[in-house]
Design goal:
single chain; about 425 residues; mainly alpha; 17 helices; 2 strands; about 50% helix; globular
Length: about 425
Amino acid sequence: MSARPRLGVLLAAVVALAATVVPSAAAHAAPKVPRTAVLDGVRMQQTRLRLDRGDPQLARAVANVTARADNWLDQGPWTVVDKPKPAPGGDVHDYLSQAPYWWPSQPRTADNPWGCPYVQRDGQRNPEVDTGTDRQDVEKVFDSTYDLSLAWYYTGKKQYAQKAASVLRAWFLAPDTRMNPNLDHGQFIPCKYDGRAIGIIDFSQSYTSVLDAIAILDTGAPGWSKSDRTAMRAWNTDFRDWLVNSDFGKEEGAAKNNHGTFYDMQLAALAYATGDQDLARRTVLNARSLRIDPQIAADGSQPQELARTRSWHYSTFDLVAYTRLAAIGRHVGVNLWSYQGPDGQSLFKAVDYLLPAATGAEPWNHPELEFHRFAASDVVHAAADAGDKAAQAAVPKLETPPGGDLWVLRPAAAEQLDSIAG
């Protein structure tokens, strides 16, 4: 799914909203701390209090978030049943997406309408994956609910919360339009696979933003009822259980690259959001031996990601998952940043491996189809905040991402600033 510089701008306004708005009636009530999984809920409350006191330094942030939210007010809601044809199996409520790096190898004909067989071109995105499936619509669901919930939390304007609630109900809850809580048909390949385990990353890349949006709405948003909260928690519980028990979930959980890291991050976030503290804590703890030990080398490199045609992209991408997983860990008493593997592997070393290229001191001497130095910005900031001296020294030398360097406004919420294709 496409990464999100915009999600960054959004969260900009998220964790550091500004007081250019006249405080509403809602602003006079003590703001509640959202029980967010990745975002720092306490920091959000503090920012909201600054907003209520009229802090002028946050003006641009609140303007950014409300502008993004305003853009969604006349869009959607979107539903999983709107695609031109259902997923394999025929159930219109099943989510469907297409593998991004697979292309037809033959001319399309009446006898071979897909142009099969499909062949892989790693790192080269087939534009047809954005038509005829649910991929683009679900991205809009993720982005809009996040933007709208943040705008409501910081401004108190009920239209934002009501719109976010309508988007969530249409995609996840309404009987006629709800999505089934599975990803059985994620990243299918025409004439080859009806779905694949790696399709789970369609959600794991960004679904934590939905979980955090729900947590924000749960603090008392107008238009988001107790029955909505109960139904959404049930959906997330079913989805969590599918991730744990399905063949696809087990396969994705066994992946040795960024897919496995994002699987753990998504499972831990869902477990935390649905009240299973033990599963959340166990998932973060197990990531030490299951992820860091085999996926990060002694020198801090990530061999599975370096083997890709977009090695810089995927090295930073994988660390976004680690950073979010570490953020979830803080809720369940696990400090993932402090862990060192048997060969000295650690998240700090993995970030430090990127620093020469991230600061422009040295070139990135690995395959990369589209190098963007700024893609490492958030993970370097995360390591710096966690106490890494080398990362702290590197922060002033980072390339400014599109939309500006927003880390100070949204700590503990690393995002992939480069384009994510799959």
